[in-house]
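Design job #97: recover the sequence.
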């Protein structure tokens, strides 16, 4: 083929985009087979050690969510569809399908192609992959949590698969919508999703449809995907390329951090910048306000994180109470673990000063050493906010469950208090994390192979792992007081390990505080 023929073949924008992507994919510094072999090996080991036992345990026990009829399954399907749309929108605001490698995006922006020409081709391919992944995730979750697959060939199973297909169709479109549309339009879509989900759930649960509620729950997401996709692809020509370039550069940096074993640094890149209320930190006489007021103002300067914390902390406290009060052991453990995880996540979103303490302990002081009020200044607001928000919700749930004179309320209070202490200790451990210790990369030779990757994986999520393991240990304790003491001991171990990560031991820190 001559040069002229090749140029004529590549005059079509689709062919030009394909040629650029093909040349970039076959560049000289791309990953080799040997470099990809270890991640594949690590994934296989993780599946064999963690996923397979969990799947076996779930499938050999009774289902968590039995679905006996279409009327009972319709509200669950509506909730899953709404959660998928909301999650996809939120993900698109941070990492959407149009995020490219910075160099590749720069090449496309330097051509005469319209943004719709090169972004549309890439978006369609990624939405297809996202739809297949969402379909697989929904089907897998249905297989593990419900009993639909225990009745092969039933109409209810066919309806459930149709719902999964509908969710797999609308979630990728919402993912693209979250990236290219404004905040107002995303809020409108989120509100419309909530109203539609409630309407379909009420209509599908009524006897008017005669058991066809799941067909309606499957058809509405599919129709919404068709309508939204036409609208969202038409807006690709007006994409803010400067904003997309910033998102791509941040995504590339975050991906580098994640591949090098520092996932927490990658997540820090997506923490929103504080805005407004700067003067509220200072009194009229020029002095700083109190520790609690400073923490509250700093939390309000990141309103999105504060709203998320305001939702997760009370919900987590209520779930904790329901978990310790539930007579069914399996349901109690699940509710307890989910509640503890919710409080753990909420404590991170409300506590911007956690990371300030880490920086003060690890970085060199600029204006001399001043240790007297460090702990009080950085930990006062997170502790008060977490204990107040989660504790009030937990207390309300306890009062609704038992009268005050009931002795079981005392045991439940001890378990909830111990869980909160454990969560706070685990959050301290997570926020004191710095770089990946080199000793974690040393091989661990076992009959299953090298398990050093599992240790690195546990280090990445050590705070959440500490919470879940602590809940399981507390659940096995014979008494509430013993469980609370165990949780306090685990929290103390987390605090000690967190201080060690910053290069300080409790002894040296106490000596430094005593000299101040």
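Job complete. Output follows.
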């Amino acid at each position: 083929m001559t040069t002229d023929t090749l140029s004529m073949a590549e005059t079509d924008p689709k062919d030009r985009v394909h040629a650029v992507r093909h040349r970039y994919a076959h560049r000289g510094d791309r990953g080799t087979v040997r470099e990809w072999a270890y991640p594949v090996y690590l994934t296989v080991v993780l599946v064999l050690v963690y996923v397979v036992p969990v799947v076996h345990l779930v499938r050999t026990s009774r289902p968590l969510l039995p679905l006996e009829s279409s009327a009972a399954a319709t509200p669950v399907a509506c909730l899953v569809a709404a959660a998928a749309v909301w999650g996809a929108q939120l993900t698109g605001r941070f990492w959407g399908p149009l995020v490219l490698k910075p160099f590749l995006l720069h090449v496309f922006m330097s051509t005469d192609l319209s943004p719709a020409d090169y972004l549309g081709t890439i978006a369609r391919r990624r939405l297809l992959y996202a739809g297949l992944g969402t379909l697989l995730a929904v089907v897998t979750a249905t297989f593990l949590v419900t009993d639909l697959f225990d009745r092969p060939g039933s109409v209810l199973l066919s309806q459930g698969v149709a719902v999964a297909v509908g969710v797999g169709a609308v979630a990728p479109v919402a993912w693209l919508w979250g990236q290219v549309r404004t905040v107002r339009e995303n809020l409108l879509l989120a509100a419309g999703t909530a109203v539609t989900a409630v309407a379909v759930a009420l209509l599908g649960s009524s006897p008017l449809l005669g058991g066809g509620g799941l067909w309606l729950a499957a058809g509405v997401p599919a129709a919404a995907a068709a309508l939204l996709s036409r609208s969202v692809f038409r807006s690709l020509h007006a994409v803010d390329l400067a904003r997309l370039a910033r998102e791509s550069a941040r995504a590339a940096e975050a991906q580098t951090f994640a591949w090098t074993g520092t996932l927490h640094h990658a997540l820090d890149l997506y923490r929103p910048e504080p805005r407004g209320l700067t003067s509220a930190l200072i009194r009229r006489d020029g002095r700083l306000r109190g520790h609690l007021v400073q923490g509250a103002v700093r939390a309000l300067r990141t309103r999105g994180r504060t709203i998320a914390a305001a939702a997760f902390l009370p919900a987590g406290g209520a779930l904790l109470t329901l978990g310790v009060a539930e007579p069914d052991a399996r349901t109690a453990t699940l509710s307890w673990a989910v509640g503890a995880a919710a409080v753990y996540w909420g404590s991170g979103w409300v506590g911007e000063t956690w990371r300030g303490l880490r920086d003060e302990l690890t970085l060199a002081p600029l204006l001399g050493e001043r240790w007297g009020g460090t702990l009080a200044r950085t930990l006062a607001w997170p502790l008060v906010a977490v204990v107040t928000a989660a504790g009030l919700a937990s207390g309300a749930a306890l009062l609704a469950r038992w009268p005050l004179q009931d002795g079981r309320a005392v045991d439940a209070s001890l378990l909830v208090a111990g869980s909160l202490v454990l969560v706070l200790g685990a959050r301290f451990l997570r926020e004191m994390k710095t770089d990946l210790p080199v000793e974690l990369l040393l091989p661990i030779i076992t009959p299953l192979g090298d398990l050093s990757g599992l240790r690195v994986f546990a280090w990445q999520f050590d705070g959440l792992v500490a919470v879940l393991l602590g809940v399981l240990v507390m659940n096995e304790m014979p008494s509430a007081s013993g469980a609370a003491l165990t949780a306090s001991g685990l929290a103390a171990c987390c605090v000690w390990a967190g201080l060690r990560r910053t290069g300080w031991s409790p002894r040296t820190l106490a000596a430094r505080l005593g000299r101040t």
